Amino acid sequence: MLNPNLDEIQLSREEYERYSRHLILPEVGLEGQKRLKAASVLCIGTGGLGSPLLLYLAAAGIGRIGIVDFDVVDSSNLQRQVIHGTSWVGKPKIQSAKDRILEINPYCQVDLYETRLSAENALGLMESYDIVVDGTDNFPTRYLVNDACVLLNKPNVYGSIFRFEGQATVFNYEDGPNYRDLYPEPPPPGLVPSCAEGGVLGVLCGIIGTIQATETIKIILGQGHTLSGRLLLYNALSMTFRELKLRPNPVRPVIEKLIDYEEFCGIPQARAEEAKRQMEMQEITVKELKQLLDSGAEDILLIDVRNPNEYQIAQIPGAVLVPLPDIEQGEGVAKIKEMLNGHRLIAHCKMGGRSAKALALLKEAGIEGTNVKGGITAWSREVDSSVPEY
Amino acid sequence: MRLQLQPEHLYLIEAEAIATYPNECCGLLLGKINRSPSQSLKQVLQVRPMINQWDDAAQDWLAEILPPDANHQRTQRDRYWINPKDMLEAQRSARAADQDIVGIYHSHPDHVAMPSECDRLLAWSGYSYLIVAVQRGSVQDLLCWSLDENHQFQPEEVQVYPAL
User: Is the pLDDT of residue B156 over 70?
Assistant: First the structure.
């Protein structure tokens, strides 16, 4: 529990009115509201999780909110990142978030850090805050946030989202477990898809983000039982919550300093392998593909390895759908062999990554092919803007 | 050792446990074992429900293994049995997909998620034994166990795959 000096905290007449529904709760009351005003919370990321939790932290009357993000608002964010509005597309997320927070509650102090959280700046940024809330979208930053919180002895309020599944817990609180107790080692790069790759139900972020906000507020108030030691799993499709117990790992290594988290998560190695694969891969640009298709060449087999629901959104004319999972399971390989019949194989996906993977698998089966650089996204940008970009 | 599953694996196992209540459900956990300096991890890639084939014939056949005091008439309400032939077949198809049987799950209707003496006597070392406690048709608990060198069950941690 936090122990601020509440003697110096005063609420104005307007604040008494604003927080009246809190003040009449015995578990919050005047003392609790003063605790909220005295508290400082640093939110890493203003994306799917950061958006709803910042809205509620602001409304609840947290005195000082810090936000770390370096991204700009993209129109594909608006389906779930509810703190940002349409007029903010193309502008910095932290500015958009501050604008909205002050509109909700002008009594909040909002401090912005337009930077990428790194091992160099993390301790300095976090030091002056009581609680850190993790709303990041990659594993290196998750480990960095965890380790910095352990070194600074600050609670780390955790949430994660994917498709229809969400998870939440509180790490490093009152001698409870931390992220490294749950996952001593990061997953191999590329194994866990991001929301950009796998999709996410927008409203799921609202559920998990507001659970993070709830836990943050409970820690500040010193009320109730936090999720420390429990990983909450939520499934939006079955509308079920369940819990897994978390325990500190008895043989966990001591965190003594921050490290190179990209290296720890195998990112540079994965990038080097990817670059090597690309070097070895035959490629064609979307403009070259367009010329080829326009020339009426009949010896081409163009395959689209995306999922059927993506194929429904946008297609390159003449492309035959053979989803990557089918190729991985072998039936897609047989299908392509059957269709190939002396034709030259060209493969595309959304951005070029999955089709490269498909071609690598096909190569093992003795089928050579050419990858479309940049996939259908490049086609939409450079060849045919009537093909929607998603 | 830890057992790592996807949340949907947990949902599938729990749904099976509820659907077969008041009888025991059972099935196989297929996946891979990853060892590294800092951890050993059994990663479940597939959950395969199996038919509980416990019957009088299975009980008679097991009479030689199970001690007499545990050997009065039992039913599928408190016993499960997977035919060894089916296990072998599952193992073959798992190996073809570069996987292995890493564990067995079953439910305990109206009982705690602790292994019984029968569970212990019939257990194989190296496997994870995931037990779902179902009380009056709803899931109460889920715990995992594996044998130590003295053929005694020790708790094993269950975790879900990391997500962003």
Answer: yes
Cβ <8 Å between B160 and A167 = yes
Which residues fall within 8 angstroms of residue A14, CB to CB, at 6 or more apart? none
Distance between CA atoms of residues A31 and A23, nearest Å: 9
Residue A38, Cα to own-chain centre: how many angstroms? 29
Cα(B22)–Cα(B76) distance, integer angstroms: 8
Q: How far is CA A390 from the centre of its chain?
A: 17
The pLDDT of residue B149 is above 70: yes
Question: 3-class SS at A57?
Answer: helix
Grade residue B67 by pLDDT with cuts at 50, 70 and 90.
confident
How far away is chain B from the Cα of A38, in angstroms, using its nearest Cα?
Answer: 31
Measured between beta carbons, which residues in chain B are less than 8 angstroms from residue A183? 159, 162
Q: What residues contact residue A7 under an 8 Å CB cut-off, 6+ apart?
A: none
Query: In chain A, which stretches have pLDDT less than 70?
Result: 1
Backbone phi, psi, residue B38, to 5°: -100, -10
The token duo for B157 is 């941690």
User: What distance in Å separates the CA atoms of residue A193 and residue A191, rounded to the nearest whole number?
Assistant: 6
Please tell me which residue, A319 or B57, carries the higher pLDDT value: A319
Query: pLDDT class for B69, splitting at 50, 70, 90?
Result: low
What's the order of all strands across the beta sheet hosting A165-171? Answer: A109-113, A64-68, A40-44, A131-134, A156-162, A165-171, A230-235, A240-245
pTM: 0.86
The CA distances from residue A306 to A200, A348, A349, A376, in Å, are 17, 8, 5, 10
Tens-digit pLDDT profile for residues B91-107? 999 998 889 999 999 99
Instruction: Note if A349 is an active site residue.
Output: yes
Asked whether the beta carbons of residue A185 and residue B39 sit closer than 8 angstroms, the reply is: yes
Looking at residue A29, its pLDDT comes to 97
Task: Please list every residue in chain B whose beta carbon sits closer than 8 Å to the beta carbon of residue A160.
Answer: 162-164
End-to-end CA distance of chain B: 23
- CA of B16 vs chain A CAs: smallest distance (Å): 15
Strands (E), A236-299: 240-245, 283-284
